[in-house]
Amino acid sequence: MLLYHDQIKKRSAVNIDIEDRAYQFGDGVYEVIRIYNKKPFYLDAHLDRFVRSSTAIKIELPYPIQQLKQLLLQLIEQAQLETGNIYLQISRGVAPRSHAFPGTIQPVVIAYPQNTNRPISALNEGVCAITTPDIRWLRCDIKSLNLLGACLAKQEAIEREAQEAILIRDGYVTEGSSTNIFVVHNQTLYTHPANHLILNGVTRSIVLNLADKLCISTKESAISEDALESAEECFMTSTNMEICPIVQINDKKVGTGRPGIMAKQLQEAFEHLIGK
Ligand code: PLP
């Protein structure tokens, strides 16, 4: 089952046009929304960001956001999705190929469910990461379909037998290829400020809130590549990876080489949220 425009249909009943601008220009935005126990997790925060991203690239939703919310809830129900995610995308629409925006066209909305389990072993054991230059554009705050910079970085990580690439711009950590990065230095939790150089993750905001509740001192301030090397702890956050410890960066252990205390504390608090 999937959502196409404002209807829930079988996948086989949907045809995507070869002149859809998502396909030719990456001209659209998207969201990935986690489903736990048949319920969407922080759906409103994802839909707010979806509206912010589409407004930033001048795509107007074809119907009210409340209607989209109802359709997504229907899709989750009909798909009987227990644990997984919903991929949601809007493209500017279909028009003969030309860079400038066409006149009035109908945006194309699609959403479909995916069955994916929680990454339990990565959460418990941690993962390895590499660092690589951040070659992406200067509007990383928009959740754009243009993901080539992220794909190249992730592929480099995989080829170097790591799971994530930590991106470095002008000597500072921005974020991961598909995650936000947190670093513990002198008992303070650092993450890049939510500006045009990163995607302001829904999980990132949850973690900053949980840290406050746990009286962990936080700073939204970019950390240098040098400081990253001497980090006491490092972890990445995203809808799919939750709060995942990074235990090795570029062949060097982070701290003891085991998931850190702050990551564990935050993971525990996060589990409570999921259970609610
Ligand atoms: N940063 C980037 C570049 C991402 O692609 C993602 C998720 O896809 C995130 C951060 C994490 O965002 P969220 O926690 O909303 O999934």
From TrEMBL:
Keyword Transferase annotated: yes
Record-stated family: Belongs to the class-IV pyridoxal-phosphate-dependent aminotransferase family.
GO MF term set: D-alanine-2-oxoglutarate aminotransferase activity; pyridoxal phosphate binding
UniProt EC number: 2.6.1.21
Pfam families: Aminotran_4 (PF01063)
Cofactors required: pyridoxal 5'-phosphate
Protein name: D-alanine aminotransferase
Assembly and oligomerization: Homodimer.
Gene3D superfamilies: 3.30.470.10, D-amino Acid Aminotransferase, subunit A, domain 2 (3.20.10.10)
PROSITE patterns per record: AA_TRANSFER_CLASS_4
Keyword field: Aminotransferase, Pyridoxal phosphate, Transferase
Enzyme class: transferase
Cellular component terms per the entry's GO annotation: cytosol
Catalyses which reaction(s): D-alanine + 2-oxoglutarate = D-glutamate + pyruvate
Species classification: Bacteria, Bacillati, Bacillota, Bacilli, Bacillales
Domain of life where this protein originates: Bacteria
